[in-house]
Design brief:
The complex is a heterodimer of chains A (761) and B (192). Chain A has 761 residues and is mostly helical. Chain A is built from 43 helices and no strands. Helix content of chain A is 70%, strand content 0%. With 192 residues, chain B is mainly β. Chain B has one domain: Sandwich (Jelly Rolls). Chain B is 5% helix and 41% strand. Chain B is built from two helices and twelve strands, in the order ββββββαββββββα. Chain B has a six-stranded mixed beta sheet with strand order 1-8-7-10-5-3, with no helix packed on it. Chain B has a four-stranded antiparallel beta sheet with strand order 2-12-6-9. The longest helix of chain B has 6 residues. Classes of the chains: A mainly alpha (761), B mainly beta (192).
């Protein structure tokens, strides 16, 4: 009876019938009280968002899994100390953290939210080493500024790890893959024309054999190599005549040989990849369009259908979750597969190429799955861009042309080696993808935005056009102060995944900067209607009001965002900005400090604090805050400019000028540092240079009244009254603010009067 | 009712008063952070009621004329407009009739900058502080004093329901001599 009940519960959970699951599970626990069943009940409650129920059930339990579930419920209820105690009992310092990677990750989050950065970093690293596909851990590391280079992290060790994880899964799952691959082989046969010559395939096999031993070395081929291999083009069988270069490729170095390899009929990068696999982390993220096979479409469709079964299962496996659903039909294929693989070693057929490419696609699919379930179909359809090289040797065992004609069932390329290498290939592909994404994310967290953009560009269109990547790209443009680029990226992101809220708060800020009130209000309305309980929606709404200068309402909206998720740092920062606009400086400081408590790499808050100090004329503090912001984001010309302003206020004019120069270099389009520089030079009584700078500035911003006003001021000091008059006149024509009008007119009146000590002039 | 004379500022007679407070967008209420004080008040009708945004409550003076409302700012500010809510229908003899506005650095050097005479006002009365000269759009001062010199019907004490003081908004970018007007400058002038 117990087994039946458990099955029923699991089934209900799978089908999202939570209430049913809870009911049945309660019966189960009543009938067979055991901790395992309690765990099941708790997980039912957690699925149903009733963390408090799980909390009470699991309080005091000692089994690893129970402790983990208990920690999750505490975490959701915001009881961080209890969660920590559960995961890491105080009186058992040597106890193992339950659930390995996931447990470490949760512990890392707890430490992060309780301000223990070092421990947090340590645990995220642990989590990541235990499960290289735990992207969230890597993300957190990036956010904390402690991430290592993606190539190192998503490299060999990670590959080994994934392989180990998945070799443990039964043959059945492997066989499932192989059976599918066999079917693909069949479909691959349909690819005509650009078949690779048998000769080539023979070489392939030769290499394959050589490479099998090489399977476990793992390698990190640089993205460069990968990009080379993307040059899918016709002809060139040179690759096959040169086994040695292929071996050399194993070390993942030589791009030229790869290029050569790419130039074959039908084989293309997939072949290349074969050779370089398993070490090849020939980046699947290369974007060169593959050679179009005549029947490619057909192949894809077939493979698509096939994959839709295997996809989720394989991806779940890759994601390291327990309980692979083994396909019973797979088992049947096992035996046959092994036999066939050996047979295929001698054969040669273009089918293998297609087969390889198919496998590759599958790998990619899986990678995709990890990130975006929804885009699975796209992946299947768009396999073109997936010229992942990482198809393994054995999987690519070129099928004997004859065998290809055999029935699906018999054509299983099973066998331990095959499936192993398949996993290796799959792992390598996944890691390739993650490596690019990880590198891009890391760079953008370090505010090396141009580099991050370059890295993201290397992704295949498939991945690039997903919501997550496009919003990251948008963020990178935003940090570069290229608001138009950011606008483009974000609107594509909206098109790609209209229900995603990630990064939409930044999008609203971009629109705020561009002063597009129509678009901004449209965005805000859409976000609110999508999810009223997401802080990003309220941030967008608040930005909308702020653009209309209704700071009180904007503040209310930002406060709502804070209420919804008090760990959302940006909402706090925006609150701070509004307080400053309303001149409530103490509250502004408080808001900025809350933001910094949550994320001390949030350089906007440091900037905000610096601005308040500038206004309050606490220049030492201002300089300190701007410097902190500068250390986090050394490339922002705006921060550099303000740092310079603070230094100028402290009368450290040398340093101030130096900062201004840096700011000017950092971003040519920013007119502010030049203006400030002129101001500083004026303060130093260096009139000529100041005028020079301002003349240059006139080219950049011809309709800026303050430039002319400042020039007028300088001419007045030089006693060149005509020029002063001219410039003041132009300044007035450009419609400055009322206060400035008064100032300028006063200056004009007093033109021929020697300078008195006045406030502004 | 002797009026203090000032150089060049004329008296003005103001009739009526607006029901609604309508102020230009480019003006900001300046006196939130200022120190307000009055020359005298009746218990329960103190200076706070001048700033409570409630038109039903009022400040009632309790001493000799002229009754003074002093506003001291933290630093020198530019002021452009003073708006007072008074209501003859409700207050009759308590309604101010002659008001003098003085400015200066402190109590010792206040100088009158404006005098107005009200005739049965009911509502918001706008008193602009600007002179004729474009140079004198604003009054740059540390302290403002609103003196009620006389009331309607020769009343002794006065009721004032609300006072607001307006000036131009500060430069959003601190430490800049002029405000920015063009898009390029504004885009780069802040981090959000």
């Amino acid at each position: 009876m117990e087994a039946i009940l458990v099955d029923s519960v699991l089934g209900s959970l799978r089908h999202f019938l939570h209430r049913n699951a809870i009911f049945i599970c309660e019966r189960l626990c009543a009938e067979f009280p055991s901790e395992t069943n309690l765990q099941l009940l708790a997980s039912c409650y957690l699925h149903n968002n009733q963390a408090y129920a799980a909390y009470y059930i699991l309080k005091g339990t000692q089994m690893a899994q129970s402790r983990y579930l208990f920690a999750i419920s505490c975490f959701q209820m915001d009881l961080l100390t209890e969660a920590e105690a559960a995961l890491c009992p105080v009186n058992e310092p040597g106890a193992e953290i339950p659930n390995g990677a996931a447990g470490h990750y949760l512990l890392g989050l707890i430490y992060r939210y309780t301000d223990r950065k070092k421990s947090a970093i340590h645990h995220f690293k642990q989590a990541f080493s235990l499960d290289p596909l735990l992207w969230a851990a890597y993300e957190e590391l990036c956010l904390l500024g402690a991430a290592e280079e993606a190539t190192a992290v998503f490299g060999e060790a990670a590959a080994l790890c994934i392989q180990k994880q998945h070799l443990h899964h039964g043959l059945a799952s492997q066989n499932l893959q192989t059976s599918i691959e066999d079917r693909n082989l069949v479909s691959g046969r349909n690819l005509s024309s650009e078949d690779v010559s048998p000769r080539q395939l023979k070489h392939m096999h030769a290499n394959n054999l050589r490479e099998i031993p090489g399977n476990y070395h793992g390698a990190a081929m640089s993205g460069a190599t990968a990009s080379q291999s993307l040059n899918s083009g016709p002809s060139s069988t040179g690759f096959y005549n040169t086994p040695s270069p292929m071996v050399a490729q194993l070390s993942g170095v030589a791009p030229p040989p790869l290029c050569r390899n790419v130039q074959q009929n039908g084989l293309n990068p997939s072949t290349v990849g074969n050779d370089s696999s398993p070490r090849s982390t020939v980046n699947p993220t290369i974007q060169a369009p593959r050679r179009k096979f005549v029947d490619e479409g057909k192949l894809r469709k077939i493979s698509g259908r096939l994959f839709s079964d295997s996809g989720p299962r394989r991806s779940t496996r890759l994601a390291g979750e327990a309980g692979a659903n083994t396909n019973p039909s797979g088992t049947a294929v096992v035996g046959n597969g092994t036999i066939h693989s050996s047979k295929y070693l001698g054969g040669a057929k273009s089918g293998s190429a297609a087969f390889r490419s198919v496998t590759v696609r599958k790998g990619q699919t899986l990678a995709n799955e990890s990130f975006d379930e929804g885009t699975r179909q796209e992946v299947f359809d768009d396999s073109r861009s997936y010229i992942s090289a990482a198809t393994s040797t054995s999987t690519s065992t070129s099928g004997d042309p004859k065998s290809l004609e055999q029935d699906e069932a018999t054509m299983t390329i099973g066998g331990v080696i095959t499936s192993t290498s398949k996993i290796i290939n799959g792992a390598a592909e996944v890691l390739n993808l993650l490596r690019t994404l990880g590198e891009g994310y890391r760079l953008s967290c370090m505010y090396r935005c141009q580099d991050a953009l370059d890295v993201y560009m290397k992704l295949p269109h498939k991945h690039y056009n997903t919501g997550w990547v496009l919003s990251q790209v948008g963020k990178a443009y935003f940090e570069l102060v290229d608001y138009l680029g950011a606008d483009r990226a974000f609107s594509s992101a909206r098109q790609a995944s209209p229900y995603s809220l990630e990064g939409m708060d930044i999008y609203s800020t971009v629109l705020y900067h561009l002063r597009e009130d129509m678009k901004l209000s449209y965005l805000a309305q859409e976000l609110i209607s999508t999810d009223r309980l997401a802080p990003q929606s309220w941030c967008a709404m608040g930005n909308c009001y702020s653009l209309q200068k209704d700071h009180e309402t904007a503040l209310k909206n930002f406060q709502r965002a804070v209420q919804l998720n008090s760990r959302f740092a940006y909402a706090h920062t925006l609150c701070g900005h509004e307080y400053v606009a309303l001149e409530y400086f103490e509250n502004g400081i408080k808001s900025y400090q809350s933001a910094l408590r949550i994320d001390d790499r949030h350089y906007n808050s440091w900037y905000g604090l610096g601005m308040i100090c500038l206004r309050q004329e606490k220049f030492e503090f201002a300089e300190h805050h701007f410097r902190m912001a500068f250390q986090i984001n050394p490339r922002s010309s705006v921060i550099l400019c303000y740092l310079g302003t603070a230094l100028h206020a402290l009368k450290r004019t040398g340093e101030a000028l130096y900062m201004m120069e840096k700011a000017i270099l950092a971003d040519k389009k920013n007119p502010l540092p030049m203006y400030e520089k002129a101001n500083i030079l004026l303060g130093l009584e260096n009139f000529d240079e100041a005028l020079e700078v301002l003349e240059e500035l006139k080219e950049y911003a011809p309709r800026e009244s303050s430039v002319y006003a400042l020039m007028g001021k300088i001419y007045k000091r030089r006693n060149m009254y005509d020029k002063a008059m001219l410039h003041f006149g132009i300044a007035l024509d450009l419609k400055p603010s009322a206060a400035d009008v008064a100032t300028i007119k006063a200056a004009i009146e007093k033109l021929h009067v020697p300078d008195e000590i006045e406030d502004n002039l | 009712m002797a009026t203090e004379s000032s150089e060049g500022e004329e008296e003005g007679k103001m009739i009526g008063g607006n029901q609604h407070l309508v102020v230009d967008d480019d003006l900001r209420e300046m006196a939130k952070k200022a120190a307000w004080s009055v020359s005298s008040c009746k218990a329960g009708n103190g200076v706070l009621l001048l700033r409570d945004d409630n038109l039903d409550t009022y400040w009632q003076s309790d001493g000799a004329q002229p009754h003074l409302v002093n506003i001291q700012f933290l630093k020198k500010v530019k002021l452009q407009l003073v708006v007072i809510y008074v209501d003859f229908k409700l207050d009759e003899s308590y309604t101010p009739s002659k008001i003098s506005i003085r400015a200066g650095d402190g109590f010792h050097n206040l100088k009158e900058i404006k005098t107005v005479e009200l005739v049965k006002p009911t509502g918001w009365v706008y008193i602009s502080l600007s002179g004729n000269d474009p140079r004198e759009t604003f009054v740059n001062t540390f302290m403002l004093q609103i003196a009620i010199l006389s009331n309607h019907l020769n009343g002794r004490d006065t009721h004032v329901r609300q006072i607001k003081v307006y000036g131009p908004p500060p430069n959003p970018i601190p430490r800049q001599p002029f405000q920015f007007t063009s898009r390029e400058f504004i885009t780069y002038s802040s981090v959000r």
